[in-house]
Design goal:
By secondary structure, the chain is mainly β. It folds into two domains: 109 residues, OB fold (Dihydrolipoamide Acetyltransferase, E2P) (Beta Barrel); 91 residues, Nucleic acid-binding proteins (OB fold (Dihydrolipoamide Acetyltransferase, E2P), Beta Barrel), CATH 2.40.50.140. Helices cover 2% and strands 49% of the residues. The chain contains one helix and twelve strands, in the order E-E-E-E-E-E-E-H-E-E-E-E-E. The chain has a five-stranded mixed beta barrel. Strands 8-9-10-12-11 form a five-stranded mixed β-barrel. The longest helix has 4 residues.
Length: 239
């Protein structure tokens, strides 16, 4: 099991495995969940490691099973967003357990200003990868790519009955190329533009891998120089 650091977390990540220390436990509040119509208890808990801190949503029985300074291991969790901030969740399919203090030595700096707080994608410093690495990372993807050209657009109707324009572009760098998908955006993008993409994730559509933006993701034109795009190594090409 690969253990990630808090500073590596990005919105949209799934199957997240982390070991964190409980820094602060907030007040219990009661919420009614639409899916089951029942009232539940929820608490915002601040957790972290030596690289950063993040808010974690804790529900029902788990609230009474953790305490400040506990070290907990979360397996198969996910990262969402609430109130404009990133939030770590155990989720329905995740698991958590308390660890012995001598198993993991985690020291979270006491001064919040001394560490980088995990925040929404697109804010603060980002680590950029090459296009060929995107499928392995799956989510929290930051790329600097050049636009080869626009692909045929398509329409989509969501459950709320609203029609959306889906713009698609072939983008890439010297390592590979991939389809980049934008919902109701992208009219300002043209062939030859260099884009800085933050907070992307990989999704399969009609057996084709595509790069999408998370809810907190962003793209912007960049002054970076990319000379060649490897269109021969097209990640989105059907098998």
């Amino acid at each position: 099991m690969e253990i990630m650091k808090v500073s590596e977390l990005q919105p949209g990540m799934r199957k997240v495995n982390v070991v964190v220390k409980v820094v602060e436990i907030g007040a219990i509040r009661n919420v009614t969940v639409k899916t089951d119509g029942k009232q539940h208890q929820v608490v915002d808990v601040t957790v972290g490691d030596e690289t950063g801190i993040i808010s974690m949503s804790v529900w029902d029985e788990m609230i009474h099973q953790i305490k400040q300074k506990d070290i907990i291991r979360i397996a198969n969790g996910y990262v969402g967003e609430f109130g404009g901030k990133m939030q770590l969740n155990v989720g329905k399919f995740g698991k958590w357990e308390r660890c012995e203090s001598d198993e993991f030595d985690i020291e979270v700096p006491s001064g919040r200003d001394e560490i980088q707080t995990a925040s929404s994608a697109g804010a603060g410093p980002a680590t950029f990868i090459k296009t060929i690495e995107a499928p392995r990372k799956k989510a929290g993807i930051n790329l600097i790519v050049k636009v080869e050209g626009q692909l045929p657009a398509r329409k989509a109707m969501t459950k709320d009955g609203i029609s959306h324009d889906i713009n698609r572009f072939l983008v890439g760098d010297e390592t590979a190329s991939i389809n980049f998908v934008l919902w109701d955006k992208g009219d300002d993008i043209g062939a030859g533009d260099v884009l800085e993409i933050r907070g992307g994730y990989i999704r399969e559509f009609s057996k084709i891998l595509e790069l999408n933006l998370s809810k907190t993701g962003s793209y912007a034109k960049s002054d970076a120089e990319i000379l060649d795009i490897n269109t021969e190594r097209n990640i989105s090409r059907p098998p």
